[in-house]
């Protein structure tokens, strides 16, 4: 009852404050007709504040921020903090858990406490840096509300905040928007499915796939590092899996539209020689097919069945809206799509001259809600990434990203252990 009354009062306050904003804008637009002189918006705002007995516009601006009524604030801005949220934030500051773009933070132990601490750190990082973030959840739960993350969100009172985030379940056949990613990002997504196949990784197939996507982006009138669609990715995979006619078609198109481009020609010649088993240069295409790894082939087949809504470009939307991505390591297609969406928020630049851009580092959070000790290859080390092992009661020493973690936080029901200190939470 008390919460319902508080929310009703807060909603009314927001409505009244936004009405004052609208009055100031309308007065500014009509100032020439009313006063015969055009006044600035600042002057009109001060006039509205004085007319309502509120002193100055600074008082209204402060109330706009406190109530979350300022429409210029991003949708991930925190307008209120529950007592638990405040307590966890204090513990994070006391424990000096760093926000380091060059490393990550691993949280393990009590799953519920780990989720509460990581969620708090993630939303506070977005709020502080005014950058949208990415929440990756590896789960078999049917919905986000049934995953291990949701109870922590409810305990923190952040349900309404998360309602404004884009949710994408890559396990479904129908997605709410189109998926785009740069060629190196697609290659990194492939790595997540082929990391245990050194023969394929050394065959040069991935290099051909990546370069084919770069050429397709360039021939479309964009930079070769521009994001390409799932259709371009599938075409590049088909080109690599069945070399011959498709390679010749792309080479002919390059010769007609961009004869100065020679990188793909070199890749194609070496690849065709490798596929045909001939080392002598100048041999033509044989049309032989290349056996792709089983998980990659399953991912490609599943991607053909996926349908994407045309109304939204998820790559562009991720630049200004936080995103929740559900995927499953047991579904190769969802791993590919999660890797592509991860590239939108990744701090790593596809430009080899500048492999890491600090300013592009987005707050990211990865939750392993399945069997312990799994890390997808596309999960970049760093980039303000909070890694939560919900199934690991002990230190997961065999996970590769652990050794590069800047901070390891052991979570217990009553608090966290970090840097040799135990910080109580919720007591």
- Percent strand equals 5-15%
Number of strands: 13
| Overall pLDDT | 79
Q: How many DSSP helices?
A: 17
Biggest sheet layout? 9 strands, mixed
Please characterize this protein's 3D structure.
This protein has about 425 residues and is of the alpha/beta class. The chain is built from 17 helices and 13 strands. Strands 3-8-2-9-10-1-11-12-13 form a 9-stranded mixed beta sheet, sandwiched between helices. It is globular and about 80 Å long.
Which descriptors would you attach to this protein?
427 residues, alpha/beta, 9-stranded mixed β-sheet, two-stranded parallel ribbon, 46% helix, globular
In short:
The chain has helices at residues 2-29, 31-35, 41-51, 57-67, 83-94, 111-129, 150-156, 159-163, 183-194, 198-201, 205-219, 230-241, 245-257, 263-276, 294-305, 314-317, 332-345, and strands spanning 104-109, 134-138, 166-169, 174-175, 180-181, 228-229, 307-308, 323-327, 364-368, 385-389, 405-412, 415-418, 421-424.
List the helices and strands and how they pair.
Layout lengths: L1 H28 L1 H5 L5 H11 L5 H11 L15 H12 L9 E6 L1 H19 L4 E5 L11 H7 L2 H5 L2 E4 L4 E2 L4 E2 L1 H12 L3 H4 L3 H15 L8 E2 H12 L3 H13 L5 H14 L17 H12 L1 E2 L5 H4 L5 E5 L4 H14 L18 E5 L16 E5 L15 E8 L2 E4 L2 E4 L3
Parallel strand pairs: 1-10, 1-11, 2-8, 2-9, 3-8, 4-7, 9-10
Antiparallel strand pairs: 5-6, 11-12, 12-13
């Amino acid at each position: 009852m008390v919460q319902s009354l508080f929310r009703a009062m807060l909603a009314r306050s927001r409505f009244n404050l936004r009405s004052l904003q609208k009055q100031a804008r309308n007065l500014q637009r009509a100032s020439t007709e009313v006063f015969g002189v055009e006044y600035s918006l600042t002057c009109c705002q001060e006039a509205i504040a004085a007319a309502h007995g509120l002193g100055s516009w600074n008082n209204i601006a402060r109330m706009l921020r406190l109530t979350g009524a300022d429409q210029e604030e991003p949708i991930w801005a925190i307008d209120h903090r529950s007592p638990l949220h405040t307590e966890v934030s204090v513990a994070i500051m006391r424990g000096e858990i760093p926000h380091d773009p060059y490393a990550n933070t691993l949280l393990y132990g009590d799953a519920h406490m780990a989720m509460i601490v990581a969620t708090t750190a993630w939303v506070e990082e977005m709020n502080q840096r005014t950058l949208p973030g990415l929440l990756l959840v590896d789960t078999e739960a049917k919905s986000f509300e049934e995953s291990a993350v949701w109870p922590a969100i409810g305990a923190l009172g952040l349900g309404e905040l998360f309602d404004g985030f884009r949710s994408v379940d890559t396990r479904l056949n129908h997605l709410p928007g189109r998926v785009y990613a740069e060629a190196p990002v697609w290659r990194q997504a492939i790595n997540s499915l082929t990391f245990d196949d050194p023969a394929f990784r050394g065959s040069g197939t991935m290099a051909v796939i990546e370069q084919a996507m770069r050429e397709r982006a360039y021939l479309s009138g964009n930079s070769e590092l521009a994001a390409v669609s799932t259709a371009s990715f599938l075409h590049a995979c088909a080109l690599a899996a069945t070399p011959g006619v498709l390679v010749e078609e792309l080479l002919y198109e390059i010769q007609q539209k961009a004869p100065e481009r020679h990188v793909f020609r070199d890749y194609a010649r070496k690849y065709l020689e490798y596929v045909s088993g001939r080392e002598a240069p100048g041999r033509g295409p044989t049309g032989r097919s290349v056996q792709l790894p089983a998980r990659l082939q399953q991912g490609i087949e599943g991607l053909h069945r996926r349908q994407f809504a045309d109304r939204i470009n998820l790559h562009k939307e991720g630049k200004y809206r936080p995103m929740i991505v559900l995927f499953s390591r047991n579904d190769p297609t969802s791993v590919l799509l999660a890797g592509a969406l991860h590239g939108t928020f990744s701090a790593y630049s596809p430009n080899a001259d500048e492999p890491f851009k600090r300013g592009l580092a987005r707050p990211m959070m990865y939750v392993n809600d399945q069997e312990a000790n799994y890390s997808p290859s596309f999960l970049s080390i760093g980039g303000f990434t909070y890694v939560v092992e919900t199934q690991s009661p002990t230190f997961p020493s065999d996970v590769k990203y652990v050794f590069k973690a800047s901070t390891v936080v052991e979570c217990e029901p009553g608090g966290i252990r970090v840097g040799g200190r135990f910080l109580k939470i919720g007591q």
